[in-house]
């Protein structure tokens, strides 16, 4: 029997998750899988590239319709919404959203992928539910870490708070929308964090905290990567795992164009 969509789902989902957003957004569980595409988000670009690659299953972290859960009712007659649905229908691709399962893995696969892509897997001091603490072998100036992060993640810019020359060794790191105070600030206990690296979060929480710390003369810093930029490495790690588990089934990772341009 060949590989089906359900075969792939069973590899990724180890146990049921209550109230999950994960699931099939298009296609059927018994659809045959000849090739798989993995991406951060099911954008129009990604769907078109997956179709061009001959993928029969697209696995994404975020959904199709511009909302964490079901699209708002007002969108359901929107031209962009309808055109996208028609493109999905024409492609015949099954689309599976894997958001909660990768975050519920032990350790969280999305954060683990970010740490791995930064080359810090061997420097992990502690893994918590929603964040990790990394201790570098030697302190580095913030400006050097910023350049290293951009180069390793292949991103053109980040947002930074802190003295570019401040030395950072103990780093608190989270991915996606987990950069809030309730997750990041407890990482200071029992030892203070020199540098927070987050995907995104409320600007009046961790960014305000780090700004106040700097104003007080403390060596604190923050790097804000962006939501997608922080979670893409985790989805690349998922693609690697599927490639290993499904020998003989091509697994492609589709990188998206940056959402924003600087003007």
From TrEMBL:
Organism for this UniProt entry: Paenibacillus cellulosilyticus
Name by which UniProt lists this protein: GTP cyclohydrolase 1 type 2 homolog
Domain of life: Bacteria
Family matches, as Pfam families: DUF34_NIF3
InterPro entries: DUF34/NIF3 (IPR002678), DUF34/NIF3_sf (IPR036069)
Family: Belongs to the GTP cyclohydrolase I type 2/NIF3 family.
Signal peptide location: none
GO molecular function: hydrolase activity; metal ion binding
């Amino acid at each position: 029997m060949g590989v089906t969509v359900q075969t792939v789902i069973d590899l990724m989902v180890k146990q049921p998750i209550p109230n999950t957003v994960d699931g099939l957004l298009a296609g059927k569980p018994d659809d045959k899988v000849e090739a798989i595409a993995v991406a951060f988000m099911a954008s129009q670009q990604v769907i078109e590239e997956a179709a061009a690659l001959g993928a029969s299953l697209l696995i994404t972290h975020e959904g199709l319709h511009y909302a964490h859960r079901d699209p708002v009712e007002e969108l359901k007659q929107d031209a962009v919404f309808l055109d996208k649905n028609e493109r999905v229908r024409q492609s015949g691709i099954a689309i599976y959203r894997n958001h909660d399962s990768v975050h519920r893995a032990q350790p969280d696969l999305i954060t683990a992928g970010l740490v791995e892509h930064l080359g810090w897997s061997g420097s992990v001091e502690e893994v918590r539910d929603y964040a990790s603490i990394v201790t570098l072998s030697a302190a580095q100036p913030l400006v050097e870490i910023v350049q290293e992060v951009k180069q390793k993640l292949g991103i053109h810019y980040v947002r930074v708070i802190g003295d570019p020359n401040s030395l950072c060794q103990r780093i608190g790191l989270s991915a996606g929308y987990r950069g809030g105070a309730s997750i990041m600030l407890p990482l200071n206990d029992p030892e203070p964090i020199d540098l927070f690296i987050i995907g995104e979060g409320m600007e009046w929480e961790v960014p305000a905290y780090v700004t106040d710390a700097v104003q007080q003369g403390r060596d604190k810093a923050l790097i804000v990567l962006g939501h997608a930029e922080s979670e893409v490495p985790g989805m690349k790690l998922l693609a690697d795992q599927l490639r290993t588990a499904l020998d003989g089934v091509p697994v492609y990772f589709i990188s998206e164009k940056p959402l924003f341009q600087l003007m």
